[in-house]
């Protein structure tokens, strides 16, 4: 898998509706994963979207989630740029450069879903998400 760069949108509880709308607009395949499916205990967020992925026939990729509890939702700043793939060396190199002189919100480390993931804001104020998956076997 090559590395991928795409927008990652955050929503205030309506990510499912928004991503279903974008799937109608652009076509393609939409996958939705809820907080409950990831092991979050029963709460108001059990059925909210932890991660959504839309891949279109035109080659567009759009990712999204509902803003998790404890994180601020701020309309107008509800996006990140996502870097993902399975080339750990390449993606860690991007992470090091993007996070240098920036702010790390989530350190780049193994997460409960099994991937290595981190979030940072670069020195120009652009938020980034880096996700490193295991190479397909």
Describe what you observe in this structure.
The protein has 137 residues and is α+β, with helices and mostly antiparallel strands. The chain has a single domain (4-132), classed as 2,3-Dihydroxybiphenyl 1,2-Dioxygenase, domain 1 (Roll), CATH 3.10.180.10. Helices cover 18% and strands 39% of the residues. The chain is built from 2 helices and 8 strands. The chain has helices at 15-26, 88-99; strands at residues 4-11, 29-34, 49-55, 61-66, 79-85, 103-110, 116-121, 127-132. The protein has an 8-stranded mixed beta sheet, covered by helices on one side. The longest helix is centred in the N-terminal third of the chain and has 12 residues, at 15-26. The radius of gyration is 15 Å and the shape is globular. The mean pLDDT is 90. Pfam families: Glyoxalase (PF00903). This is VOC family protein.
Number of domains: 1
Largest sheet features:
8 strands, mixed
Quote the distance from N terminus to C terminus.
11 Å
Q: Strand fraction band?
A: 35-45%
Count of β-strands:
8
Oligomer: single chain
CATH class: Alpha Beta
User: What best-fitting shape do the alpha-carbon axes yield?
Assistant: globular
Structural class: alpha+beta
Segments where pLDDT lies below 50 for 5+ residues? none
Mean pLDDT: 90
Q: What is the element string, with H for helices and E for strands?
A: EHEEEEHEEE
Number of helices: 2
Write the CATH architecture name.
Roll
Q: Name the CATH homologous superfamily.
A: 2,3-Dihydroxybiphenyl 1,2-Dioxygenase, domain 1
Strand order of the largest sheet: 2-3-4-1-5-8-7-6
Protein name: VOC family protein
InterPro entries: Glyas_Bleomycin-R_OHBP_Dase (IPR029068), Glyas_Fos-R_dOase_dom (IPR004360), PhnB-like (IPR028973)
Organism: Streptomyces vinaceusdrappus
Domain Glyoxalase/fosfomycin resistance/dioxygenase: 4-130
């Amino acid at each position: 898998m090559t590395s991928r760069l795409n927008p990652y949108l955050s929503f205030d509880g309506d990510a499912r509706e928004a991503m279903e709308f974008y799937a109608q607009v652009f076509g393609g395949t939409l996958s939705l994963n809820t907080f409950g499916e990831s092991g979050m205990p029963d709460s108001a967020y059990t059925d909210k979207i932890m991660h959504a992925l839309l891949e279109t026939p035109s080659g567009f990729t759009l990712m999204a989630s509902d803003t998790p509890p404890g994180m601020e939702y701020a309309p107008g700043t509800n996006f990140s740029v996502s870097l993902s793939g399975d080339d750990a060396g390449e993606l860690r190199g991007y992470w090091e450069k993007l996070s240098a002189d920036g702010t790390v919100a989530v350190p780049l480390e193994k997460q409960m879903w099994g991937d290595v993931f981190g979030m940072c804001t670069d020195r120009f104020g652009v938020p980034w998400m880096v996700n490193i998956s295991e190479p397909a076997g």
